[in-house]
Amino acid sequence: MSSSVNQKARRIAVLGSRAVGKSSLVIQFCENHFVDSYYPTIENTFTKTIKYRGNEYTVEIMDTAGQDEYSILSSHHASSVHGYVLVYSIASRSSFDMIKIIRDKILDYTGLETVPCVIVGNKSDLNIQRQVSQQEGKDLAQQWGCPTVETSAKHNENVAKIFDILIATIEKANTPPSEEKGACVIS
Ligand code: GDP
Ligand code: MG
Question: 36 is in which domain, residue-wise?
C-alpha cells in the first residue's frame, strides 16, 4: 500500500535546563501519564500523530538530556529539526535565562534569524514557588515573535497545546509569503 499523501513528518526537539520537566511533558503527551523520576540523562525519541487542519502529521519528538551554558548544540539537535520546544520552569529564574542562551545557540548554529519555536513555562502548579511571572514569558515571546504557554506536566495542563501550536507555527513558517493574505513581496 502506498503511504497517504496527507501524511507529513515533522521533527521537534525539546530543549531546556535539566529538571524543568522536558521528559515529563513528552511522556505525558505521548503516553498519558506523569513520571515522578525519569532518568535525567536519557535521550529518547517519541512518535505521535497529530491532526492539524485536516492533515495528519507524524511528529518525531526528541527529548534531550538538557542543556547548560557550556553545552554545545549538536548537529543531532539542530539539523533536520523543524521546530523547537524551549522549556523553562516557572519556579526557576535560571532556567528562564537558559532558554535565551539555547535559542542564541540554535540561531548561531543554523545561521537563521529566527526558527519556529514555542516557549513553555512548565510547573505552573508550583505557583507558590513562582520566580518568573507570566508577563515575562509573554514579553519574551513577543520579542521573539513566537507563541508561549504555561503548562503542568504533573496535572496535564496545556501539554497537548504545546505541540498543536508548534505544528501550526512550523506550517506558518513553511507557507510562502505570497500565499499569506496581505503579505508584501518585493522581488
Ligand atoms: P527534565 O530533566 O527536564 O527531563 O525533567 P523531568 O521531566 O525529569 O522532571 C524533573 C522533575 O520535575 C521530576 O521530579 C518531575 O517529577 C518534576 N516535574 C516535571 N514536570 C512537573 C510539573 O509540571 N509540576 C511539578 N510540580 N513537577 C514537575
Ligand atoms: Mg529528561
Answer: 7-174
